[in-house]
Every structure is written in C-alpha cells, then in structure tokens.
Amino acid sequence: MEHNCRFYCYRKTREPNSHKTNKTGKIELVAFDMDGVLTDIISSWKYIHDYYNTSNERSINDYLKGKIDDMEFIRRDAILWVENGKPVTKDKLAEILSDVPLMKGAENCIATIKNNGIKTAIVSAGLDVLADKVGTELGVDYVYSNGVETDENGHLNGVGILGVKLMYKDEVIISLSEKTNIPLERIAAVGNSCYDIPMFEVSGLGIAFNPSDICTREAADIVVEGNDVSKILQALKNYVN
Ligand SMILES: [Mg+2]
Fold it and tell me: Has residue 194 been placed in a domain?
C-alpha cells in the first residue's frame, strides 16, 4: 500500500513516544477517537469548513511542520468562519454539526463496553460542540476535545480552548490514566488515523478501526475493517475479565 499522504508527516516534527507500554490481558478503559470512529465524518473542523466553503490546508501544513502551535491553528480556523461580516456564533456551529451522523454500531459499541463495567472516553482534536453532544448521547464517561471561545455577544473571538493537541493525544491518555487510577496497560485506544498512533503507543491495546493509512494500520495491535464500529467488540472480548 502506498502512503499517499496529503499533508506533511508530523513524525518529522515529533518523535515517537519513548514510553512503550506493556501489552495487557485486561482492559478497564477504552478511549475513542471521535471523527471517523464514533462519527461518520472525516473531521468536525473540515465539516464546518465545507459548510462555509473555506479551507485550512495551509495552516494544517504549518502546524504539522511545527511552525505554528495548536492555539494558532485553532485561531486561523475560527477566523475563516464569517457570516454577514461577523464571526459565527457557537450556536451556529452546533446547528451545522447537528446533522453529523454517528458511525454505524456506535450506540451498541459504547453500551456493551459499559455493560461490561469498562469506562469509556472520547479523545478528539475535533470540536467540543460535537464531542460533548456525542459523549452525552452515547453516555461516554470522559470527553476531551477542543473548543472556541466566544465574546459577550456569543461570537467566536478567535481564541481556542485547547484540550487535545492533535499530535499529542498520548498526553491525554497519560492524564486519563492518572485521573482514573487505571494503569496505561489496561487502557485500549481506538483510532482511524495517524494522529491516533501516539495513543496506541502508550496504551496497552491499540485498535485501528477502518484505518485511513498504512502507518495507523501498522502501529495498531489489532485492525478492524469496515464501517461498523461495534465490530471492535469481537476484538475486545479477549481482553475483558
Ligand atoms: Mg479520526
């Protein structure tokens, strides 16, 4: 399989995680990437850009090369969304994102995991407007994502609320582990793109769901093909109880 990556490889900007977590026999928490895993879209940021016919491709490349940080990346995205000469409101973002479909099998997947006494989390570099909604709908225990601040009139002011650095999702897994007292060995991470590889590196089990590139496929312990995320339950069965 060819790489065919559209964007600069962030692996040239950050090193792989030096901490390699031992593989496990039992899972107590499953952390999910959101876009492409629990929702059937490529990116919640891109979903808004598509609505306004804007593009953040240049700032993606600057970010991946380490020329700008996450806050500047969010700022450059947010200032592109304008309606009637004014920055959009958060309510408008919620309205645009309201028709984002869940991935097939998402409800069943989360419900079954919870019924087995296992905690769940969303670790998304996507928008909190969508992550919080999906987290509530599915009953996810912990939700980490990124937000945008608004001014007193509810309009985006260009300032980001940084919860998840796109290139550093491993940091969120480590803080989740500390917060929940669940060892890294007992955390499984589910993701579909290369930005989920740092989660795989620090988690006891890495599951690539319908991976979009060869690097993600190769970095995972298990690969689940297709567009039904409840198929990961079969793979998780060996790591429950
Ligand atoms: Mg994704």
Answer: yes
